[in-house]
């Protein structure tokens, strides 16, 4: 389970991350990454899985898988980011490993883009394995 402190819970936060964050696309998923105002706050993850993706069972399975991936990414991403995954209908056909790779790729690339643009104070603990 993803800890409560690491979840985006407010609609306004989702809106700000998606509208003003760095966007990275991979087939079936779009990742929006935004740096938080203070770098010592925990990184938070949010999930947008619309009804177009499939029935409730499929949507919830994808959301659970993305939560597991998010939990794995916490040490790599570090502190001070908000990350939102927007899932597209093609993702319903993806297996766990493929979904993990796409979410990981998008998250780490978004964090690196922020760090490269000088918007981040430090890249924190982002690994270069992707």
Distance between the termini: 24 Å
State the order of secondary-structure elements, H for helix, E for strand.
HEEEHEH
Low-confidence stretches: 119-130
* Mean of residue pLDDT values: 89
Major beta sheet, strand line-up: 1-2-4-3
List keywords for this structure.
disordered C terminus; four-stranded mixed β-sheet; alpha+beta; 41% helix; 130 residues; globular
List the helices and strands and how they pair.
Elements: H1 11-20, E1 22-26, E2 29-35, E3 44-49, H2 56-77, E4 81-87, H3 96-116
Parallel strand pairs: 3-4
Antiparallel strand pairs: 1-2, 2-4
Helix pairs in contact: 2-3
Would you write up a description of this structure?
With 130 residues, this protein is of the alpha+beta class. Helices cover 41% and strands 19% of the residues. It has three helices and four strands, in the order αβββαβα. Strands 1-2-4-3 form a four-stranded mixed sheet, sandwiched between helices. Strand 3 (44-49), helix 2 (56-77) and strand 4 form a beta-alpha-beta unit. It is globular and about 40 Å long.
Quick structural overview:
The chain is an alpha+beta fold. It has three helices and four strands; from the N terminus they run αβββαβα.
């Amino acid at each position: 389970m993803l800890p409560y402190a690491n979840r985006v819970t407010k609609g306004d936060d989702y809106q700000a991350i998606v509208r003003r964050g760095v966007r990275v696309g991979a087939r079936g998923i779009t990742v929006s990454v935004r740096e938080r105002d203070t770098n010592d706050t925990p990184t938070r993850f949010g999930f947008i899985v619309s009804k177009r993706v499939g029935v409730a069972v499929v949507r919830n399975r994808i959301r659970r898988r993305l939560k597991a991936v998010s939990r794995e990414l916490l040490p790599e991403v570090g502190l001070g980011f908000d990350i939102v995954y927007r899932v597209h209908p093609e993702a319903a056909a993806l297996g766990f490993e493929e979904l993990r790779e796409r979410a990981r790729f998008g998250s780490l690339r978004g964090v690196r883009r922020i760090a490269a643009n000088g918007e981040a104070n430090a890249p924190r603990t982002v690994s270069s394995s992707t």
